[in-house]
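Here is one chain, start to finish.
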Amino acid sequence: MKRGQAAPRPLGVQIDHVLVGRECAVRDARFLDLPHADHRALLVRLDLHG
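Its structure:
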């Protein structure tokens, strides 16, 4: 996924958000399937500036 690109929306609605300040930038984000759950995990990697 490219920076600034939204994560895929499998059900058409995105309810998970990660808010970051100016001291960091999002490197990438992805969803992980969780066994025995009806939810998925949102994994976000950040670059810290400074």
